[in-house]
Amino acid sequence: MKRWLPSLTMMALIFIFSSMPSEDLPEFGLLDYLLKKSGHAFGYGLLALANLYGLGGRETRKAWLMTILYAILDEYHQSFVPGRHPSVIDVFVFDNLGAFLALSLFHAWKRWRGFPFYPVK
User: Fold this and answer.
1) Terminus-to-terminus CA distance in the chain, angstroms?
2) How confident is the model over 12-41, as a mean pLDDT?
3) pLDDT for res 118
4) Considering the entire predicted model, what is its pTM?
5) In this predicted structure, what is the pLDDT of residue 115?
6) Residue 111 in contact with residue 83, Cβ under 8 Å?
């Protein structure tokens, strides 16, 4: 269970942010779209890495799939939040891109270092 704590924490944070009604979200002017979509990619990138950690560091495809499934569930959840709406673009572009980049960078770093980032038990 201890291995899954980072993943559960990330899912809780994502849930909290996506539970905020649109009128309560901060506005960033011209950078609003860029910052919010970057936040999607960053958050789901961290979730993908946390899922990989929970899986023992060796099941990248499963970590990616778990991340995308959570993104789909989260977008569905947003359909019940005032002023928010589900977006297929968020899931398959921004969330997917964040998860893919984080997992790819992790594996590139692992190859460059020549050893796993954390021991697998």
Assistant:
1) 13
2) 93
3) 53
4) 0.89
5) 61
6) no
Closest CA to 4 of 45, 40, 49: 49
Q: Which amino acid is at 114?
A: G
DSSP state of 29: G
* Rounded distance between C-alpha atoms, residue 6 and residue 9, angstroms: 5
Q: How confident is the model at residue 121 (pLDDT cuts 50, 70, 90)?
A: very low
Domain extents in the chain: 2-113
* pLDDT greater than 60 at residue 103: yes
> Cβ–Cβ contacts within 10 Å for residue 14, how many?
22
Torsion, Cα 31 18 13 96, to 10 degrees, reads -70
Q: Is 99 helix (H, G, I), strand (E, B) or coil?
A: helix
> How many Cβ atoms sit within 10 Å of the Cβ of residue 92?
13
CA distance 103 to 100: 5
